[in-house]
Amino acid sequence: MTPDTTQTGAATASTEELRKLLAPVRYVLWDLDGPICRLFAGHPADAVARMLVRKIQELGLGALLREEERFHRDPQAVLLGLNERHPDSDLITQLEEWLTQQELTAVPSALPTPYADPLIRTWSALGARFAITTNNSARAATAYMETRHLEGCFPFVYGRTKDLDRMKPHPHCLAQALKALGADPSRALMLGDAGTDYQAARKLGVPFLGYARAESKLPPLLEAGVDRSHIVTSLEQVLDVLREKR
Question: Which of 64, 120, 129, 230 has its CA 20 to 30 A from that of 145?
Fold first, then answer.
């Protein structure tokens, strides 16, 4: 059996391994930014991170930031760093809502992940039931689905709340989705592109499929413990397996 490869030649999921992983799946928990779309394609995340740091400084609270947070490219990382030191504060509530508004601003220029739309429609037509489990705002996830006319495929959307301690790798949003779907974790699948997705799924006994669209996405998944045989570099690999069932 010859495995598929990434652009760099690192062995990832083979067609046969995907068949085995997908065969029992009746419920799919989707991360948003990565497997479904590039949310910040037109409203770059690094620019949002700089804006967030500037906003904190304009509030006269720049001293609360650690040095590495001042230059971080991920606005969620900046927000989480502050939350570790100032949980349940009015500041965190204000900044979380600000980030939600930035994500909503990003939605119109978000780019669909290649093969995501046909994969969603095909899998849904085959009887799979879906939920979104994301560290982005549920409002942004819902808004994006509406732009792609896919909201009917996702009756359940769970995202970031003001309680940032419940963001993945905490399994809170996954547990909510499983309960809403009435899903046996062993018949579910988490589809994500980050180690935190895998960690959350593992805590609940949910099988995991990693999506590494770029070379830089593969090492963090491997470091988190994801087996190479449970990583794809294109959703076309998943779509091809599902089309065998039609």
Answer: 230
